Amino acid sequence: MSTGTHRHAEQDRLGDLRTSLTKQFEAHQARLTELTADTGDPGQAHTQDALIAATRQSLEQIGGALRRVADGSYGVCERCQGDIPTERLEILPHARFCVPCQQKQNG
Questions:
Q1: Are residues 25 and 55 in the same domain?
Q2: pTM assigned to the model
Q3: How many domains does the chain have?
Q4: Which whole-number Å values give the CA distances from 33 to 16, 28, 30, 44, 93, in the listed order?
Q5: Rounded CA gap, 35 and 33, in Å?
Q6: Using one digit for the tens of pLDDT, what is the confidence trace for 21-80?
Q7: CA–CA distance from 30 to each of 60, 81, 100 (Å)?
Q8: Is the dihedral of CA 70, 75, 79, 80 positive or negative?
């Protein structure tokens, strides 16, 4: 595969990823809006708080991935600056670290 063809394929992959992440981001924003609407049911407050926190975390992760795509740092480990394997990014598109660095990060 020529360098130009490889570069074009990579741009297509990142474009598809950007579209997918944007759709996920929008869906999570809509969900957060629904979750933060006052239901008036105090029995649901704890569960709703947990769902809101999880949704906010997802929005932060997706937003971070979109920023990395935009600035060209997507797929680069934030700790060692090495490449994050494509397989890892396919499973966890918002990954910020390669597996060894993630394990160090988790302690």
A1: yes
A2: 0.77
A3: 2
A4: 26, 9, 5, 16, 24
A5: 6
A6: 999 999 999 998 988 886 667 777 788 889 999 999 999 999 999 999 999 999 999 999
A7: 14, 34, 35
A8: negative
| One domain, residues 64 and 96 | no
Range of the domain at 39: 1-74
Query: Are 50 and 91 members of one domain?
Result: no
As given in the structure block, the two tokens for residue 85 are 């394997």
| 52 and 90 belong to one structural domain | no
Burial status of residue 16 (CB atoms within 10 A of its CB: 0-12, 13-18, 19 or more): exposed
Q: Which two tokens stand for residue 31?
A: 């969900």
Query: DSSP readout, 88-102?
Result: HHHH-TT--S-HHHH
Please indicate, yes or no, whether residues 52 and 87 belong to a single structural domain of this protein.
no
